[in-house]
């Protein structure tokens, strides 16, 4: 199946099962990042740190998952190694770039999966496929053995069908992660609802979920969101070109990704400097909002996922990430909880907390998921 590119049996037999996005090294196997340009890559000589931690903590690795080529796209459509089918919503894109990881979890072929999130690449496919996906605080989880080797935005994180499993993965891959009790966690909790532009059915689903959770809601403005989205793209372009630009000359990179890489190559130093200034300003803006309300809430997706038939021009759909990418720029932890619109289509509730408050954010998300009937993985 397109979601799994390598079947494996590593680790503790009978342990919980996990699949690994094919941008993370597993010793003895090549890391191909969903690209024919890396088809002849040599086998990794060591496990990525997070892979070794999973094995050391009793997890069983059962496969490597497919992705949007070179992790450089939002839809999950891959013209080279095949597009992952969204298990619950097969007419719709699975989301990218961690499409295979989200789909494998949604299809229940593993208990959990690891993805990477540079500009929404865990949270977007989690929302599209109807599962939970977590982007930790930048730097909280080791990226040793992860492609690209250098990134100021990318985070390794888990996807799962329930918060208990997601939290268990975090405990395994992050040595200082100490789960927080959910007891009375929502009592008196104030959540800031970020004003964003999104489709009415998406906003209705998010509002309904928050109201059912019983928390205290306050309106919040983040006027720097749009600038942060653009700045995040500028930095992603420069860093992805630095990491993968040399592959374009092979002629083996899919045309859509190759064209994006060539466009990325034109990013100037002045544009990068301006983006870094936005990073500082937006991070401070989010910090200020979190000082007033310790959790921020907003949709994961601005609208329901596009249908596969309408998504062949992946460059035209980068806006899928306009509500998630800003928090890669700022470095704050963010999680997507699965939601359904009134028409039964997948979207997501995104929650954001202060940098380093990963445990608390996961506990709040778990408490909301337990309390709120609208937050469901059932289609």
Automatic annotation (TrEMBL):
- The highest taxon in the source lineage is Bacteria
> Per the database record, which ranges form the Amidase domain?
17-361
Kindly give the InterPro entries that the UniProt entry links to this protein: Amidase, Amidase_CS, Amidase_dom, AS_sf
Q: Name one GO molecular function term.
A: catalytic activity
Alphabetized Pfam families for the sequence? Amidase
Cite the PROSITE patterns for this sequence.
AMIDASES
**Protein's name in the database:** Amidase
